Amino acid sequence: MDNVDSDKMQIGENKFVSKRTIVSHLKTYNIYYEGQALQLRHREEEGELIIEGLLNVFWGVRRPIRLQMQDEKEPESPRSLLTSLSAETDISTDINSETNQASISIEVTAADNQSNDSSGEEKEEEGNGDQEVSQSERLLRTRSDVGGRRIGGRRLGIRRVNRHRCSFNGHFYNHKTAVFTPAFGSVTNVRVNSCMTTAQVLRVLFNKFKIENNPDQFNLYLVHTSGERHQLKPNDHPLAVRILQGPCEQVSKIFLMETNQVEEVTYDVAQYIKFELPVLQSFITKLHEEEEREMQKLKKRFIDLRQIIKRYMQYLADKSS
Known about the structure:
The chain has 321 residues and is an alpha+beta fold. The chain has three domains: 158 residues, Roll (Ubiquitin-like (UB roll)), CATH 3.10.20; 76 residues, no CATH class; 43 residues. 37% of the residues lie in helices and 19% in strands. The strands form four sheets. Strands 3, 4, 10, 11, 12 and 13 form a six-stranded mixed beta sheet that branches.
């Protein structure tokens, strides 16, 4: 039984697909996004297949959302500052994303003291610093001030960290525009993995943009171009669902919408949505005609049965007399 489970990957509550199937879809997904930031990585940990990367989410809310008045207090420890900066990178916007237009600028101030220590540990720190700089140039993130790296033999001290939140297509927090409705169909992305459920992805998204609204009032919906719309269950895994649906967002997209204002649309209903009004009216007329024919057949059947019963009752009455 364990061997069977190890060959499958969970995509929702009591929903599993074989690893071979998901890997096949993943290859197609990465070929489609070759050379772009939306390519996904995968690995196995203790027999479990884990896929991670950026997931595009489209805004479909109808009511305004509210941004936080101010961010949480920053930690004072330099180690904590660097740790929190590294954690923020996991949900940062990417340079190849067309719609998340945030940027990063790193500002450092030199400390008063210089270090003449030429030990191997210092050289290692210098190499790490250069690596951090090159990495930060490749990331498109919100502006941060960070120090604590060695450049040219001089140690740079951490003075302060001022983080600015991610934006909605360039819209940063402003006290006059803290409450607004994102443009319908505008897209953002969050860094997630295939183990994260719908509820967890929502919280990552709300934390990224510092949204005060309750995430429980919203949900993710898989919306097809045909008009078919399905709500992702709380225990579904959105990234796995996206991979199985295929990479082309002209066919289907994942939307963020209010839970109580959106109805699911089945395939049978969706196939009629794209028709023009006169065509739909002709469908309704034909349905009424078919309904009338079925009603007449049913009425005739009951009339015939009633007459048979009456004749038999009359036969019994004549016989008894």
